[in-house]
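User: Reviewer 2 asked us to show a designed sequence for the structure in our supplementary figure. I'm pasting the structure tokens here. Could you produce the per-position amino acids so we can include them in the response letter?
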């Protein structure tokens, strides 16, 4: 029986698109492309996810790679990206339907401490019972440790849990821990049908 559904955040619940985020503040193409390359460089974001670099350090290091005229807008973009995350069509309905059926909803995301402190401002997350963030717990997907942490801290039985993520390696990590994985391809209707079928079969 499925009692828990764990969702990834970016590219599952919301669209994480650096070009879109930067485009809310900068229209000049070359400046926008530079800001995307620098502010969203995996050099920083992998460390943000792991909690080994601070947001202030990221802004400081980024500005070293940018002309001074872009420093102010770079800081504005960095501290505003969490408010520029359009929900993926249909995912709010999927989440609401699961909650109405009594399924426990959780979030498991490789994401920064800064996001974790502002997660309460993200509308779709109001439907969730618990959120686990990599930078806070100290583990990142797809490590076995983060799934062990999730199940221990949130009192989950892996056999009663489905994990939805858009990254195949993360799905493999979950399945290796005994959690049922669903590789999300952006189609919320297909995901809704998957849960409808699963929950109907269990109830019937």
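Assistant: Here is a per-position design you can include in the supplement:
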């Amino acid at each position: 029986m499925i009692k828990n559904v764990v969702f990834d955040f970016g590219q599952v619940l919301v669209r994480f698109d650096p070009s879109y985020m930067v485009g809310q503040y900068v229209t000049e193409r070359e400046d926008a492309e530079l800001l995307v390359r620098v502010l969203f460089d995996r050099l920083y974001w992998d460390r943000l996810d792991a909690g080994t670099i601070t947001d202030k350090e990221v802004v400081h290091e980024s500005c070293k790679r940018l002309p001074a005229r872009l420093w102010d807008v770079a800081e504005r973009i960095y501290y505003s990206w969490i408010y520029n995350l359009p929900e993926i069509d249909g995912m709010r309905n999927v989440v609401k339907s699961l909650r109405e059926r009594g399924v426990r909803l959780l979030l498991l995301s490789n994401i920064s401490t800064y996001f974790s402190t502002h997660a309460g401002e993200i509308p779709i997350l109001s439907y969730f019972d618990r959120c686990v963030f990599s930078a806070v717990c100290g583990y990142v997907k797809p490590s076995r440790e983060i799934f062990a942490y999730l199940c221990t801290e949130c009192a989950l039985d892996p056999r009663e849990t489905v994990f939805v993520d858009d990254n195949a390696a993360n799905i493999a990590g979950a399945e290796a821990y005994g959690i049922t994985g669903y590789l999300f391809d952006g189609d919320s209707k297909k995901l809704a049908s998957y849960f409808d079928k699963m929950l109907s079969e269990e109830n019937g």
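For the response letter, you might also mention the following. Residues 158 and 179 are 5 Å apart (CA to CA). DSSP finds eleven helices and five strands in the chain.
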